[in-house]
Amino acid sequence: MTVIQVLLLILMLWGLLFSKVMFWCGELTAIETICHLIVTSELEECFITIPSPFDEDSSIDLYITLDKATENDVKIVNGAPYIKTNVKVNSRILSAHKNSNYFDENNLELLESYANSYLKSELENYFYKTSKEYKSDIASLGKHAVKYFSTWDEWVNYDWLNSYQNAFFDVNVDVEVTSSYLIS
Q1: pLDDT tens for residues 144-177?
Q2: What domains does the chain contain, in order, with CATH numbers?
Q3: End-to-end CA gap in the chain
């Protein structure tokens, strides 16, 4: 075999290995990827679409950013990880409906409530999908659990990745919505 043939063979094997790893782990949807960025505090900015609280046949587009770093905390309760996540998001309304009034305080509160519920549900779905279906701690939440183990052997015996599959999640979301309308 020539050097070029060996290199091509290595590249083919790497490609095969990479495709197998991607198949084993699975894929995240767009909203799940946004949730991952939120949990890891890596979200800079994005657009999401949520169901409209004012018209069940329409949706509202929001521009969101993290107000502060996401707080993740892990406790071990009855042998299982109990993971608490606190998220603070700023958002601006990008789409409007006919006859919608986003200057009204009650409407903004209702929209914030819908945005909170939507993001909370999506974050919970992300956590359960990665822990139960993918069996993978892709957000590296285990780093918050290490403090409960005084030795490396205790940590290894706990078997974080296996225990993570039994995790319980408590997600708190606080979305502050502001209207993007300019008054002239």
Answers
A1: 998 998 888 898 899 998 999 999 999 999 999 8
A2: 27-178 (3.30.300.210)
A3: 74
Q: Is 96 helix (H, G, I), strand (E, B) or coil?
A: coil
- Which candidate, 13, 32, 53, places its Cα nearest to that of 125? 32
C-beta pairs of 137-145 under 8 Å, 24+ apart in sequence: 137/161, 137/164, 138/25, 138/36, 139/36, 139/39, 139/40, 139/72, 140/40, 141/39, 141/72, 141/74, 141/81, 141/83, 142/74, 144/72, 144/73, 144/74, 144/83, 145/74, 145/76, 145/81
Cα–Cα–Cα angle for 91, 97, 102, rounded to 5 degrees: 50
| More confidently predicted of 23 and 138 | 138
What is the H or E stretch that residue 83 is in? strand 80-93
Looking at the chain, the whole-number percentage of residues with pLDDT higher than 70 is: 79
Cα gap 136→128, rounded to integer Å: 10
| pLDDT surpasses 90 at 23 | no
Residues 6+ apart with CB under 8 A from 23: none
Q: What would the two tokens of residue 165 be?
A: 């599959």
Q: Are 115 and 177 in contact (CB under 8 A)?
A: yes
